[in-house]
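Exercise 7. Given the encoded structure of a 212-residue chain, write a plausible sequence.
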């Protein structure tokens, strides 16, 4: 059962929604072009991400998204999710130091997080990482990110003030959500999107420099 959206979101949710929208739009433009905001309102040309760039491993022993038939990458023990492609992972404790992760890994991680948290906030409260399909191509991954971001934003619009203060309003099982007030979960998702979006942008810059 899906929870219907509120007519007006709580006042303290509004700045978090605006921050989420900013981070989402900034990353989407960075991935697809034709221009992105340089940070001061100036448009900078940027080309769409290719499959080669999406899966590029800048250093040895990266974690990425791989064909399931190929098996997990270095220091990973399994490929998470369902379908023909999966994301490198390992049970806790994770390898130390952590592996460098590709754009594919980071974007899949973001999209999975948004999709599952939306379900565990305003959906059926059933999806797990084993249900998620990671894409092996750039266009599919960008579309999955857009779908996950839309689902999460719609879930946020169902939260009233009581929900924001409710511990465990999000039942997402792969984080601290069951132990946190929902407003803290909303903040956490924003910072995940902001910092992984910045990481993806930097890898795009490195890719462009490498091509030159």
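Solution.
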């Amino acid at each position: 059962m899906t929870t219907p959206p509120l007519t007006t979101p709580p006042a303290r949710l509004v700045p978090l929604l605006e921050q989420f929208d900013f981070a989402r739009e900034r990353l989407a433009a960075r991935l697809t072009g034709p221009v992105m905001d340089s940070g001061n309102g100036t448009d900078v040309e940027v080309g769409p991400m290719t499959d080669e760039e999406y899966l590029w491993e800048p250093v040895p022993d990266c974690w990425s998204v791989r064909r399931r038939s190929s098996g997990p990458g270095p220091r990973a023990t399994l490929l998470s999710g369902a379908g023909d492609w999966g994301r490198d992972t390992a049970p806790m404790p994770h390898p130390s130091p952590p592996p460098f992760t590709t754009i594919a890994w980071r974007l899949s991680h973001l999209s999975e997080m948004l999709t599952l948290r939306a379900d565990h906030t305003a959906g059926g409260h059933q999806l797990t990482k084993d249900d998620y399909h990671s894409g092996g191509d750039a266009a599919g991954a960008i579309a999955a990110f857009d779908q996950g971001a839309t689902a999460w934003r719609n879930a946020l619009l169902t939260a009233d003030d009581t929900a924001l203060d409710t511990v465990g309003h999000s039942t997402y099982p792969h984080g601290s959500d069951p132990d946190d007030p929902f407003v803290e979960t909303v903040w956490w998702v924003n910072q995940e999107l902001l910092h992984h979006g910045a990481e993806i942008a930097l890898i795009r810059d490195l890719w462009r420099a490498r091509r030159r």
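Remark. Strands lie at 35-37, 43-45, 65-67, 78-80, 85-89. Students should compare their own answers with the one above.
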